[in-house]
Design goal:
Layout lengths: L1 E2 L5 E2 L11 H10 L13 H11 L5 H6 L4 H4 L4 H7 L2 H18 L5 H22 L17 H6 L5 H16 L4 E7 L2 E7 L4
Helix pairs in contact: 1-9, 2-7, 2-9
Amino acid sequence: MMHMQSGKRIDFNCIRADDIDIYDIAHNLANICRFNGACPQHYSVAEHSVIVSKLLSDEFKLWGLLHDAHEAYIGDVITPIKEYLGADRLASLKESLDILIAKKINVIRGPRTICQIKRMDHRITNIEGMLFFDDWQDILIDDYRGDDYAKEIQMIECEPPEAAEYAFLEQFRILTGSETQSVVCRGNSRWQRREIVDTC
């Protein structure tokens, strides 16, 4: 069983839509560092997801924000490890989680949506790679070599987990029109969270 901040326990043998919690997704993604932690400072999956979402057209923004939400449950398995281990079983679990997340959040993720988000995800990954690694030009994804990345570069701030979690939830609130708010603070020796009108 996997324990979540919300108190939910995830059994991957019978995971259900009711197990999905937007606060768990935001919290976990904010604490997962991109590139398996190889960044020069903490740069979270949550911050990456917010950037991808903001750069997409309106119809794709919500799933853009949630395109890596499954990683809140299975972690950010980097591409070289997927290739080494064989990706079929992991891809099946990822797809099952994506379906459940889309059902819980009530968002459509058709082929056109997935295609548009994949392209933006790859573009942002290139920018991140070029910022964080000296040799990234040698392994550019989808050959975006020569593109102007000035706007996207300015969006990458390497926020601390608390800020990235808040930004993720705020983008979710804007896109869904919900009144959900989250204030995360460090109180004494444990985390405290105040939730107002939890709609998801």
